[in-house]
Design brief:
The protein has 471 residues and is mainly α. It has two domains: 1-217 and 244-248, no CATH class; 257-464, no CATH class. It contains 16 helices and no strands. It has helices spanning 9-42, 44-80, 84-119, 127-137, 141-156, 161-184, 189-214, 250-281, 286-322, 326-353, 355-363, 368-379, 385-398, 403-427, 431-434, 437-457. Helix 4 (127-137) runs parallel beside helix 7 (189-214).
Length: 471
């Protein structure tokens, strides 16, 4: 495990970010394996049924990723100050939130699915299969919530490798289950959905097994007797529900949700805004649709490294906030921003240089390849701005302010983006023009973050942050 409160800032933070990057790549395995198996073995209609409803799963995944951010920030602060009792309360509360929230969403999703597939405009001819696939996938709400909350706790302790190993194991299980359930047992689209549930459940169980094994718990009611100090691995497993299931600890639950709900809504709303952008692109014809699809596939190679830096920065800020090292936060923020922006600029420059070849990988021989290359040239010189969104958002959340990042994203990456989209579609409807809404809104969001951080922290930077709170 990596202690980010001591030692070289950049080296430790960027090494810590590598497993986050691998985790994002593995996550793509989950989202594409079902589609590949359905397309190859079940036919076009089944593949369309899976793809048409995937936005619902993306929205839910984004929300639970946000709740994992809430648990991660609080756990990082607790680990930073060596507060073992707070970590124990956080683990127990996270387990209860997982079960309660997952159960509610599962019931709502299954019960309302017939209406939801109509709401998201799934074509009538594939609506029954899409509804069946999504109903079964909604059985994985508890596993998705549990994995994200548990992974947030493990990463906050300085261990970013274990969650990605377990996510990779879940991805391999997903491949094996798809083959078994679709190709051998012939369960059709229900088999694809069941494979997702089984793989997500496996990843969650592995994460929580690690938590139960790694951290010992005191006897119920005696947590205050535990001395502060660095938490070390324990051989005996803890009891998550020592006195029955019960309700989550109210104060701890409020602390998690105060950060997690805004972060989750932020991710979900951005996904929704991108869905609306895609709906407008669909009006421009097959060439533009193909070019935009390839653009977003290629974009992952620059977006995922930036997102990994932001996730590592979130743990860095949380641990140092808990340890009371405000000056280290200030120095680290500047270093991470500078190094992250420079790295993003280098990656973007290389990809712009080879934009024709990159577009050709996805669209060989198609006129859409040139359109995709033009889109890359238009937007990616400014992609370094996204580093500011990720890092400064993580900084604010580490100080307990998740509302400001959510508000900035809603204002710029959703509302303003859709206004620009409307103007462009009226005056100059072309894929190369539409893509410019992204760097423009990255810039305005960056300016908002800078203004908010300057107002919140003042001339002394991060040294003027909010007082450390306990869970």
């Amino acid at each position: 495990m990596i202690d980010l409160t001591e030692g070289p800032i950049l080296k430790k933070t960027f090494l810590f970010a590598i497993p986050f990057l691998l985790s994002s790549l593995v996550q793509q395995l989950y989202s594409t394996v079902d589609l590949i198996f359905a397309g190859r073995f079940l036919g076009t209609a089944a593949a369309a049924a899976i793809g048409s409803g995937s936005i619902l799963l993306t929205l839910v995944l984004g929300f639970f990723t946000g709740t994992g951010v809430g648990a991660g920030v609080l756990a990082g602060q607790a680990f930073g100050r060596g507060d073992k009792a707070s970590v124990h309360r956080l683990i127990r509360t996270s387990a209860r939130i997982t079960i309660l929230a997952g159960t509610v969403l599962t019931a709502v999703g299954i019960g309302a699915m017939s209406r939801l597939v109509v709401l998201i405009r799934v074509p009538a001819e594939i609506r029954p299969e899409s509804a069946l696939y999504l109903r079964i996938c909604f059985l994985s709400m508890i596993p998705i919530a549990g994995y994200n909350l548990g992974a947030g706790i493990l990463r906050a302790s300085g261990d970013s490798r274990t969650p990605v190993r377990y996510q990779l194991a879940g991805g391999l299980i997903n491949v094996a289950c798809n083959y078994l359930l679709i190709c051998v047992l012939r369960l059709g689209i229900a088999g694809a959905a069941a494979a997702t549930v089984l793989s997500q459940s496996s990843a969650m169980l592995l994460v929580w097994r690690a938590i139960l094994t790694r951290f010992s718990l005191p006897d119920p009611g005696r947590e205050s007797d535990v001395p502060a100090g660095r938490i070390r691995p324990a051989k005996r497993r803890m009891q998550v529900f020592p006195a029955g299931f019960g309700l989550p600890d109210a104060e701890t639950a409020r602390s998690i949700l105060k950060i997690g709900i805004p972060a989750g809504l932020q991710a979900s709303v951005i996904t929704f805004s991108n869905l609306l952008v895609q709906s407008q692109i669909n009006r421009l014809g097959a060439v533009s649709i193909a070019a935009f699809t390839a653009y977003f596939k290629a974009e992952n190679f620059i977006y995922y490294p930036i997102m990994a830096v932001g996730q590592a920065a979130a743990v860095y800020f949380a641990q140092n906030e808990g340890a009371g090292k405000r000056e280290r936060i200030r120095r680290g923020c500047g270093l991470i921003l500078s190094a992250g922006a420079a790295s993003a600029a280098v990656i973007a420059a290389v990809m712009i240089l080879f934009s024709t070849e990159i577009s050709g990988v996805f669209l060989a021989g198609s006129p859409a390849a040139m359109v995709c290359a033009s889109m890359i040239h238009a937007a990616w010189p400014f992609y370094f701005l996204y580093v500011f969104l990720e890092v400064l958002g993580a900084l604010l959340r580490s100080k307990g302010d998740a509302v400001a990042p959510m508000a900035i994203s809603l204002l710029n990456l959703c509302a303003f983006r859709l206004i620009l989209l409307s103007v462009i579609m009226q005056r100059a409807p072309a894929a190369e023009k539409v893509v410019m809404i992204y760097p423009v809104t990255w810039f305005t969001a960056t300016m908002c973050y800078i203004v908010v951080c300057a107002a919140k922290f003042g001339s002394r930077g991060c040294d003027n942050g909010a007082a450390r709170g306990r869970i």
